[in-house]
What does this fold into?
Amino acid sequence: MDQWYRSVISGERAGVMPALLRFVFEIASWFYTIGVEFRNFLFDRGLLRVQRLNVPVISVGNITTGGTGKTPTVIFLVKELQRMGRKPAVLTRGYGAKAGQKPDEVLVIESECPGVPVIVNADRVAGGIDAVNHHHADVLVMDDGFQHRRLHRDLDIVLIDTTEPMGIPGVLPRGTWREQPYNLKRANVIMLTRCEQVTQELADLAASLLTQWVSPRRIFQQYTRITGVFDAQNLRAPITTSVEPKRVLAFAGIGNPNGFLNTVRTLGVNVSAAFWFDDHHAYTPDDFDPLARVTAQRKLDAWITTQKDMVKLLALKTPVPLWSVRIDTQLPPVQLEAFRTRLIELLSTRPAVK
It folds into this structure.
């Protein structure tokens, strides 16, 4: 559904029905925009209450739908905060999980940040109170929180994918904007993600376009780094043999599959086929029948997916090895020091809970 919807609103899908849908979406987006702007007005004027907790809150969010790298950024923040001697907890709404199961992002964060509480609660205020009172957190990292204005945040970080800086133009449902771009003025920090997938000139151009809403000193360029390729049969250690000559099938259920595909190609593998599912897709065995047929027809060597998908597929029986790519996110040294200084300044005003 996600891929079909994007093909309609982007104009990629031609014909009478897609054109009619775009018209309907355009009308619907006017009402959606009015609702969002009215809500923002109420928060800006103090007519809707903002709850402030007794620990600092750092929000990581988007202004567009789709994947911009929130989970790796949350993990990066958690590790930075731990390095500074703090006790962070993560607040998340939790998307796409079946009843009784943990969302995929939660599984990834718990894997990468063992011992860090991850509180799943659509009510971020209640989740934050729980994290402080029961898990003794002294700083909170709120995942996907830019539009969740009821919880006061001390640092508002917005992620923008450099490969598709403002998504598909238009407010939902006509485009992929959650709200008008000028609302980026609320952000304290903007991080341009996946800068390694574009030239430095394009990354700098994207940054310059954002200066109409934020100061250049608040814009950071983030780079994705592959930390290893892991086989489903042994997730404790990365594959040590070369994967370059391998012919692979890539698949994922994420918001930005093209970003993942570009990352996979940097491994030097031959991506002979690709299958994309909706973000947070709940896989069933039938989903993999087409993949198995293509694998047999083309005599492929392996399947490769994201860490977020792998955590849901450990029991899957595949005709070839199943690999996942693990990544982390980095800032250039000068920007990293500037960002750490920003964190230190924030935390110095809110001492750690003893």
